[in-house]
Amino acid sequence: MTVSAAVKASMNYSVDNGRPIDYYFYEPTPSVDLQLNPPGTDTHDVAIHDGWSEVDRLSVDKEGFELHEFGADFLQFDNDELVKEVFYQQVISYVKRHTGAKQVVVFDHTIRKRMAADLNVQTEVQRPAVMLVHSDYTVISGPQRVRDVMKEAAEPLLQNRVAFYNVWKPLYSRVEELPLAMIDAQTHGPEDLLRMDLKYSDRTGEIYVMRHNPEHRWLYFPLMESHHALLLKTYDSSTDGRCRFMGHSAFEDPTTPAGAAKRESIEVRTMAFF
Question: Is 1's pLDDT higher than 50?
Answer without folding.
Answer: no
